Amino acid sequence: MSPPAKDEHDKPGGTLRILFLAPQPFFQERGTTIAIDLLLKALAQRDDTVDVLTFHLGEDRDYPRIRLYRAAPPFAPAEVKPGFSWNKVYCDLFLFRDAFRMVRRNRYDLIYAVEEAGFMAMILGRYASVPYVFDMDSSMAEQLAERYRWIRPVEPILQWLETLPMRGALSVVPMCEHLAQIARRHCAGSVHVLKDVSLLGSRSSGEVEDLRRSLQIRGPMLMYVGNLKTYQGIDLMLESVAKLPARYSHARLVVIGGNDASLEKYRGKAKELGVAEQVHFVGPRPVDALGDYLTQADLLLSPRITGTNTPMKIYSYLDSGVAVVATALLTHTQVMTDEHAALTAPEPDAMADAIVRLLDDPEQRMRLAARARALVKREHSREAFRRSAHAAFSEIERRVAANGLRKRVSAEPEPTEP
Fold first, then answer.
1. In this structure, are 50 and 185 located in the same domain?
2. What's the pLDDT at 85?
3. Which letter, b or e, does each residue of 178-201 get, where b requires 16 or more Cβ atoms within 10 Å of its Cβ?
């Protein structure tokens, strides 16, 4: 759908009128867009009126006072993958074009900008005299430096560029404490952490395959869920399985996720390590069935070796009632402690030892799983997210009013330029 030619809302309806810039395929089942969807639900409950501008790809969503517009470029790519890509850059150009048209034709109290849209909001906010909020879902500088070695010499420059949207923002909304620490150093406004949530229990998944039966697993089942990128530590995990003692040669690792290329790569790796018969790569499964798969395992593994963002799956891991083994890196430790999971050095021997300790101690597995589930209920449930989002936007709204930045002054829409 093209951007509205005029101010199309019948009434302001909510406490804030927001232009929400989401430079992703929305909705698709991936971490950032799931978080966006949760936030839009919270804004609808708050009675805000939101124009969402996103990419041409994805499923529509229908919430009260939330209108979805899609920037559709010519020769639109059929796919935009997570992370940096030239397809994403191309789509961003047309999203910025349509966002510019929308701020010219409509009156907004606030621009809410996700990820790289923060740079667009810097320009649009100055042009239209509208404050903006920067949703910092990741460190783009860190991600690029991890993915492309040739970028590392200029990483300090990229880090400085990344601070620019923070400096001019009314507020920054990071998704984890590590990003919040960066934001607090540069944002003169407020910083509100909106943590991700467990995805379990969101929908009924229906009948799901019995992995033990279909894969003929008769011993302990270890499980990993996620993509098979190098930073996830898949090599480390396979090497750890190879280090398990002979008495656990009947243990099996089930790997859920990955694409054809990564599955082929790691099947080859498992064969090289001599654990091909112990590892089952079953490919992707629906997110709404995640809980049914997790609860079949005896242990859940998160062997991530780089990065600082906490993967969204961790909250579902912790909510599953199954004990977790994870690397003792910031990506995990900013969410959980040894009270909630077995945290281990990112080394094959250390991870193998942690797996064996928990397989040998069912009572400890139960204790860890119970404390982890209590943590999720307290801090990472959908209700906890809703409360945090409402508190953040109430404070943001006060800042808009206190700074005299609110443009709408009556219950009726003001005339706008065509």
1. yes
2. 85
3. bbbebbeebbebbbbbbbbbbbbe
Range of the domain at 244: 211-379
pLDDT single digits (tens) 14-55: 489 999 999 999 998 888 898 999 999 999 998 899 999 999
| Integer Rg of the chain from CA | 23
- Residues 121 and 22: their CA atoms lie apart, in Å, by 11
- CA nearest neighbour of 159 among 182, 133, 178: 182
Contacts of 147 (CB under 8 A, 6+ apart): 83, 84
pLDDT in tens, 279-315: 999 999 988 899 999 999 999 999 999 888 898 899 9
* Gap between the Cα atoms of 402 and 392, Å rounded: 15
Q: Enter the tokens of residue 119.
A: 């740079």
**Cα(212)–Cα(209) distance, integer angstroms:** 9
**Domain identity same for 159 and 64:** yes
Q: What angle do CA 322, 283, 205 make, to 5 degrees?
A: 55
| Residues 270, 190 share a domain | no
**Does the pLDDT at position 178 exceed 70?**
yes
- pLDDT at residue 10 in the model: 40
* Global pTM value: 0.83
What's the Cα-to-Cα distance from 76 to each of 67, 73, 209, 262, 346, rounded to whole Å? Answer: 22, 5, 37, 26, 41
Interatomic CA distance for residues 353 and 224, integer angstroms: 17
Q: What is the CATH number of the domain that holds 317?
A: 3.40.50.2000
Domain count, the chain: 2
Does 272 share its domain with 390?
Answer: no
Strand order in the sheet with 132-136: 66-71, 49-55, 17-22, 110-114, 132-136, 171-174, 190-191
Cα of 372 vs its chain's centroid, Å: 20
Note whether 49 and 128 are same-domain residues.
Answer: yes
Domain shared by 386 and 359, yes or no: no
